[in-house]
Specification:
185 residues; mainly alpha; 2 domains; 8 helices; elongated
Length: 185
């Protein structure tokens, strides 16, 4: 998921910073008001970065430019989708991302395994599970914990013949960090 953050950051710069812009520019030449505002915000953010952060950003940008054009376009599309979300949803995603980053690797692996189990459920079971998860939002924390365990038992302790193979995602559709025990990634 670290890649997703990196790619979103790089994509932001690509979308709003014209190639001709330099550190001395005070505006994005020929840009409309919305792009101008984004440009100024990015410029201020850049100026607040430490030299090490700026170097990391440059490296991420370099890696982005080396990606195939199709992959770059997928990243840009994800960024556009992210930007269309309401501000509170974007904030919630950022907070989840920060929590994810702080999790120990074994816990992240456990979550990835659960997600893969979810993806292997038949479509009707996935729909049922999503509905039950929405209903859990109205429960008190203790009730929610108990219900979550019940749902795990109900949906993820199924016999193998009830499961179906998960569709294979396009490369890099599932953001993740590399690491031991993750062959092919």
């Amino acid at each position: 998921m670290n890649r997703l953050f990196i790619l979103l950051t790089v994509s932001t710069m690509l979308l709003f910073v014209p190639p001709a812009a330099t550190a001395d520019d005070n505006s994005a030449p020929g840009a409309g008001p919305a792009v101008e505002q984004d440009y100024q915000a990015l410029k201020e953010r850049w100026q607040q970065m430490t030299p090490e952060q700026q170097q990391q950003f440059r490296e991420r940008f370099r890696r982005f430019k080396q990606m195939p054009p199709e992959k770059q376009e997928r990243i840009r599309n994800r960024l556009r989708q992210f930007k269309r979300l309401p501000a509170e949803d974007r904030q919630r995603l950022r907070q989840r991302w920060q929590r994810w980053q702080k999790m120990p690797p074994d816990e992240r692996d456990r979550i990835r395994q659960r997600f893969e189990s979810y993806r292997q459920l038949p479509p009707d079971k996935r729909q049922q599970l999503r509905q039950e998860m929405r209903e859990m939002r109205r429960m008190q924390p203790d009730e929610r914990r108990q219900r979550r365990q019940e749902l795990r038992n109900k949906y993820f302790n199924l016999r193998p013949d009830v499961m179906q193979p998960a569709p294979q995602p396009a490369p890099s559709t599932l953001p993740h960090r590399g690491g031991a025990g993750r062959p092919g990634r």
